[in-house]
Amino acid sequence: MTLRRLWSLSRFAVPDFALNIFWQGIFFYNLFFLTEKVGYSLPTASVIVTIGVAVSAVSDVAVGALVPRSGHGYARLIRWSALPLGLSFIANFAPFPVGQAGSGVAFFVAQIVFFICYALASISYVSWLTENVVASEDRTIVSAARMLLGGVAALLVAWAMPVVSAMTSGGGASSYTLASALFAAVACAVLLGSVRGTGDRPAHAVSAQSFASSSLGEIFGSRAFLLFNLAGVGIGIFGTSIARSAPSYFTAALGDAGIGSALAIMTAAGVASVLGWAALGIRTGRLSIWSAAAALGLVVAAAFSIAAPLPATVAIGAFALLQIAASGANVSLWALLPDLADQVHRATRQPLSAICGATAFCQKMAVAIGTLLLGASGGIGQSGGKAAILSAGFLYPAMVGMVVTLAALALYSRATRR
Predict the structure, then answer these.
(1) pTM of the model
(2) 223-254 vs 395-417: helix axis angle to the nearest 10?
């Protein structure tokens, strides 16, 4: 593999940097913003977020079905989605002056609009990627590049969101609106520039058959695809529990001044591990690193939970290990998805966007389930108190996620060996 080839492949990962600015901003700070800055109780905020994500998950299926019928290429759809995605991202960090009930509805609507726009951009991107990068080794390399750039975006958001907020309006609710506007501007510019001038052809047309339960039944009729997505749901629950609890945990352990640095260390550890996971995946197989990462995450989460409360520096190290585990699992997941999508496409003749939309639906449901379980744990938010946060009850949903992942991977391995 020449450096020129590596550079050529890496350009396919650039849109993921922009998409991860949006995703990680919501993932890290949406629930934190509602509980710590707007003042909702954790159960109320988690219900708002969970319902919003669950409803928007249906949009993934709809978007996946409608994209081929649009007659437009995937790159064009990515460009069209950029501005609405940026504006809806900002709306998720706007303290609406309409009372708690009214602002709850406003946040709910803002989430749904954001996730619909995100679905259009991300499903078009993954479909565009699947059509343009076809070799398994190339897909592993692109997956690693995506994880690296996505990790850099996460690192940037994790560290800079509270820093920029503190510089603007003293870290209050309105300061997060200004910070989110800055990040949205950067992400939109990158998203528009990264697919400009790339080859683009109309998405595969679908038959006149309505994309209803029969089509979903065909896609999920593949046992391997079903188990793959179940394992992905487990990782999604794990990642949601860790990312959405980390800001509250570090605020309790270190105060507002230390949250950005702690999140940056945690995220940097995940980014630094990506190349190692990718190299190991090429050598030993992508499925093996997924299993290893899931086992690592389960062991660290269990040990953290038993030993809690931990000294702040040790807790940062534990969060870093959890992030490394999440990175390994995601390298494998996103490297395997294009191959599996191709197989399902050949077997069912369903469009790639619909297949990727089905996976996106599962990922959104994982976020919804993870957020709901996190709310039930009562371990974050102002209402829980510092002692409740430091007791690390948020790790129980994370452990549930990893158990689901390991069980699904064992069944997936058996299904693919037949």
Answers:
(1) 0.75
(2) 160
